[in-house]
Design goal:
Aldehyde Dehydrogenase, Chain A, domain 2; 14 helices; four-stranded parallel beta sheet; alpha/beta; 19% strand
Length: 414
């Protein structure tokens, strides 16, 4: 029997067992996973060191290395996320609607698990933990397939969680990891209609495009984050400086980092020299439009491709725009529907930006870096969806459920 199909069949069996598992039982399993992860910290760090060394030898970018790296603090953050998810209400069985129809039928709409979810991701080993925990709490079985650059780290984390979970009653096959790095394994996995219910890819554009092309089961894309901050003419300069610096520099290799800064013309002479100075102090390469380059001839001239590039690095493109309409048009043409922000004191400008920007998260006077499951109170996230159907933005417990109608009658016929 093919190993990928066999793995998916085990997941399907586990998903049926999870259907009847109580909240208390799931929370006990999560507690056992925490204990096992703490015991496994030395092994996880050894595995991550090996992955980091191989990644450096392969010439991975600094941003990719940052995503890959684990340390005691990052493992503790994973454990904190498990504890947070454990404390959240169980979404399964939540009644979304109750109605007695005129014919006497009792109609209820309840949250239920999706079933078997395949999560395919790159670089970040913490996704192994987050995806497993969220899927389990929402009573789904999960099949994890990380990138080859993090294989040792992912396996060490998954094996610890499996050991801990199974000691507390986790059904065999509920949390599984694909150890094969062959792309054909992914292709087969996403075509297993009837065994896999949903695929969630998170990674680069090439990965998303490949999975979308291969898949025969539903896909929720966690695509790129080409995020903008627009500094409107009424903005508080000090606030705008803090936000524009944070959105780009705090952690540039993640999808909610800002890639393009838009500045309205009246405020540009005051704002641009100060933000450029801050960026240079942080080692950021600044690429500017013609007007920006006139303000500071030392900038790298921006090309048309820059407005469509997710750098995931210490690089930023800056454009001076005439007005709010121009900023909105730029975001509509070049944004990825992830996270967008306006810095403004104008209530009218804030209102228009919130209403007219098409994105999963739209901010007023705050950094795009807050688009995150933990920051949104979800404990963790399985990804940030840029789709419009079923799930949008950070995907937590509720986004990993569907619903069904339960109808009770007393003999009614139509």
């Amino acid at each position: 029997m093919n190993s990928i199909r066999s793995l998916a069949q085990k997941s399907k069996e586990a998903s049926r067992a999870l259907l009847t598992m109580s909240t208390a039982a799931k929370d006990e399993i999560l507690g056992a996973m925490i204990y096992a992860l703490r015991q496994a910290v030395p092994d996880i760090l050894v595995a991550n060191d090996a992955d980091m060394q191989a990644a450096q030898e392969a010439g991975l970018s600094s941003a990719m290395l940052d995503r890959l790296r684990l340390d005691g603090g990052r493992i503790e953050a994973m454990i904190t996320a498990i504890n947070t998810v454990r404390a959240l209400p169980d979404p399964i069985g939540q009644e979304l609607k109750r109605e007695i129809r005129p014919n006497g039928l009792l109609l209820r709409k309840l949250r239920v698990p999706i079933g078997v979810i395949a999560v395919i991701y790159e670089s970040r080993p913490n996704v192994t933990c987050d995806a497993a925990v969220l899927c389990l709490k929402a009573s789904n079985a999960v099949i994890l397939r990380g990138g080859k650059e993090a294989l040792r780290s992912n396996c060490a984390i998954a094996q610890a969680m499996q050991r801990g979970g199974e000691s507390a009653g986790l059904p065999a096959g509920a949390v599984q990891i694909v150890e094969s790095t062959d792309r054909d394994a992914i292709r087969e996995l996403v075509q297993l209609e009837g065994l896999v219910d949903l695929v969630i890819p998170r990674g680069g554009e090439a990965l998303i495009a490949a999975i979308s092309g291969w898949a025969k089961v539903p896909v929720i894309r966690n695509a790129k984050g080409l995020c903008h901050v627009f500094v409107e003419q009424s903005a508080n300069i000090e606030m705008a400086l803090r936000i524009a610096e944070n959105a780009k520099c705090q952690r540039p290799g993640v999808c909610n980092a800002m890639e393009t800064l838009l500045v309205q013309r009246p405020i540009a002479p005051t704002f641009l020299p100060r933000i450029i100075e801050r960026y240079r102090a942080q080692g950021v390469e600044v690429r500017g439009c013609e007007e920006c380059c006139r303000v500071d001839p030392g900038l790298v001239p921006a090309t048309p491709e820059d407005w469509d590039t997710e750098y995931l690095d210490l690089i930023v493109s800056i454009r001076v725009v005439d007005d709010l309409d121009t900023a909105l048009a730029h975001i509509a043409d070049h944004g990825s529907k992830h996270s967008e922000a306006i810095i403004s004191s104008s209530i009218e400008a804030q209102k228009r930006f919130l209403q007219e920007v098409d994105a999963a998260a739209v901010y007023v006077n705050a950094s795009t870096r807050f688009t995150d499951g933990g920051e949104f109170g979800m404990g963790a996230e399985i990804g940030i969806s840029t789709e419009k159907l079923h799930a949008r933005g950070p995907m937590g417990l509720e986004e990993l459920t569907t619903y069904k109608y339960m109808i009770e009658g007393t003999g009614q016929v139509r």
